[in-house]
Amino acid sequence: MRINFTKMEGIGNDFIFIDDRDLQIEKQISYERLSKKLCDRRFGIGGDGLILLSNSNTCDLKFKIFNSDGSEAQMCGNGMRCFAKHAYEKNIVDQDEFKVETLAGTIIPKILFNTKGEIDFVRVDMGKPILENKRIPFISKNRESVLESIEVDGQLIEITTVSMGNPHAVLFVDCIEKADVTRLGPKIEVDQRFPEKTNVEFVEVISKKEMKMKVWERGAGETLACGTGACASLVAACLAGKTCERATVHLTGGDLFIEWNRQNNHVYKTGPAKTVFEGRIEI
User: Fold this and answer.
1) Catalytic residue among 76, 82, 231, 238
2) How are beta strands 13-19 and 49-54 bridged, if at all?
3) H-type helices in the chain, by residue range?
């Protein structure tokens, strides 16, 4: 079976997009197996994840994402921006703002155009951050965890836990370049206090309106960017009194502008999305 695909990236976080609204692909191969096969950077197309466009009974479209290891994720901020641009440019939707069903709830992306009428950025309403530990989930005696200590290899590390539809552990560091991402990231990801594993963000606060971030993504390893992670990092920094509610987050792959609107308790993320190439592949 040959299928059409589109390769896209959002500040270095790259994805393979497939339209399976008719469910013909799922009848041939499970999405878990397909993700592992296509995301392989040596024997496949290569990507951090596989994103499927599906029909929805409650929204305009349904968003499904599978990590490169085959595990299904609830949501992905960078992937959602690419999803919105892809759906609009392929005339799957004809509105610049629409509703998307995800495992994390309804997400509303908005297409932003430049003076030439080209898609410049995508702004995504990421919904409300979840701070209650039992809903993240994170096992703790505290209802919420802001700068709570956990032990990793005999070392005490302070984390702040946030869910943006998927779990995050945010660590503040003095220097992002010295952050031990590849050692601490995988250990915290599978820490037994996170029953569903977790994404791990390493954050250096530059000022009240600026941060640097590196990420170890659950099911994918270190990636160049993570949209939900940037949102979780801003929320965590606000809770810890380190930043205000609006800030630019510098990630390895590029910048995101994050805003936490305290009036409606929604987090908004604005950033770019790019199409890399399109093709057909035999599966």
Assistant:
1) 76
2) parallel
3) 24-28, 31-39, 77-89, 181-189, 227-239
Mean pLDDT of the chain: 96
Nearest to 55 by CA among 20, 21, 7: 21
Q: Does the domain spanning 2-127+271-282 belong to CATH 3.10.310.10?
A: yes
Helix (H, G, I), strand (E, B) or coil at 89: helix
Tell me what the mean pLDDT of segment 215-222 comes to.
94
Distance (Å) of CA 247 to CA 94, 206, 234, 258: 31, 10, 7, 6
Question: Facing residues of 171 across strands?
Answer: 202
Is residue 238 part of the annotated active site? The answer reads no
Per domain, the residue ranges of the chain are 2-127+271-282, 133-264
| 142 contacts 128 by C-beta, under 8 angstroms | no
Catalytic residue from among 82, 226, 231, 238? 226
Q: pTM higher than 0.85, yes or no?
A: yes
Q: Please name every residue paired with 150 in a beta bridge, in sequence order, or none if there are none.
A: 157
Distance separating alpha carbons of residues 165 and 63, to the nearest angstrom: 13
Chain position carrying tokens 């995800």: 102
Please give the Cα distance from 71 to 218 (Å, whole number): 9
Q: Say which CATH topology domain 133-264 has.
A: Diaminopimelate Epimerase; Chain A, domain 1 (3.10.310)
**244 is annotated as an active-site residue:** no
